[in-house]
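Minutes, project check-in
Item: structure for the 412-residue chain
Input as provided by the requester:
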Amino acid sequence: MNAHLIIIGGGAAGIFCAVNAARLSPGLKVTVIEKSSKLLAKVKVSGGGRCNVTHHNFDPDSFSQQYPRGSRFIRKAFYQFFSTDTIQWFEERGVRLHAEADGRMFPTTNSSQTIIDCLLKEAEKYGVEFMMNTEVKNISHDQPWRLTLKNDRILEADFVCIATGGSNKNEGYQWLSDLGHSIIEPVPSLFTFQLPDHSIRSLMGVSVKKVSVKIMGEKLKESGPLLITHWGFSGPVILRLSAWGARILHAKDYQFTILVNWLDDMREDELSALFQQQRKEQGGKKIHTGCPFELPSRLWQYFLNTSKIEEDKRWADISQKQQQSLMRQLIAGEFHVSGKTTFKEEFVTAGGVDLKEINPATMESKLQKGLYFAGEVMDVDGITGGFNFQHAWSSGYIVAEAVANVNNQPSS
C-alpha cells in the first residue's frame, strides 16, 4: 500500500510541497485539503494580480536579512532551495521571470494566473488529489496520523504537512498546541497606516519615489516609495516599517507618530542652503510655479498652502516663518497614525509555530515524527518584495524532498 502525504492548506507553500513530493516520490499518494473553495488565493492577488514570485537577490545571507522574524532559520533553508532554484524551477516549466528596478520578480506575462496555471498543471500531471471546502477539526498521532474532518470523516496519513498560513488569533493554532507545539503570539505584519481626518488624504493617488519615515520614540526607520491613499499612507516604505515594527506597533495599539522626510535623507542645513540658492538665483519667480525637488506638483502645492504661502509669492519674498514652516513639512513632517489597514488575502502575520521546535533541514517537527510545516504557519515573515513567497517555495520544497527521501528508502 502506498504511503500517504496529507497537506493542510492549498496556498503557495502547500501546493508547491504537493507537486514536488508527488514528482520526487512517484509511489506517494498526495492529498491537499483546503477549507475554502479557492486554491492559491494569495498568489492570485499578489503584486496587484501579477504575483511577486521572488526577489532578484542571489546571496542567501543578504536575502535572509529581509525577514524581521526567522532570518537565521530561513537562511539555513536557502542553502537547500533558494531564489535561483525558484527561477529555474518555473523556467523549466515554461514560465520565465523578469526583475524590475526594485528587485521584485514577476512572470514575464505580468499575470499571476501564469503561476497558478503552472502549479495546477503540475498537480494534474503527478496526480495530486484536492479536497476543497474541507476543514480539519483535529489531528491525532496514532501511527498513522488520524485527521478528523468537520463532518467527522477520518483520514489516515503517514506524513502530514501543515501549510495553513498565518492566523490572527491564538485559537487558530489550538490544534497545533494540542500536539505539544509552542505558538508565538500572532500579530499583523505588512499593513498600511491610517491618518483619520488628516488633510493630506485629499492627495490620494499621489506617490513619491523615495522618502524616509521614522517612528518617533523608536529606532525604526525605513526609506522607499510612499503612496498617499484615501485612508492614509501606504507603499513599500510603510509596509517595510510595519513589518520591522510589527510587535512594537501592536503594543502601541497602532497609536503613534511618524516623521516623514519627503526629500529622503536631506538634512536641515542642506535644505536651508538650497533655499538660499533659490532666493538668489530664482528670486523673481513665483514659488508656486516650479518645485526644485522631485516631488509631485500636487504635493508641492499642498505644502505651500499649508505653510500659508500665497500663489503670487516670489522666492525672494517668502518670510522666515513661511520658510521654516515649509522646511519642517518637507523634511520633518509629523503625522499621527491611528489604526492600520490590512488586506486579508495578501498581507501576512508575524508569529506562529516556534522555530525552535522545527528542523530547518527538513521542516519536520522536532516533537512529532512525520509532522512537517511549510510557509507562514511558522514564525517566519519577510518584508514586501517577494520574500514571503520565497519562504513558501523554499519550505514547501524542503518538506517535499524530506518526505520523498523517507518514502523512497527501501523497506527493511
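Outcome recorded: The chain has a mean pLDDT of 95.
No further action items on this chain.
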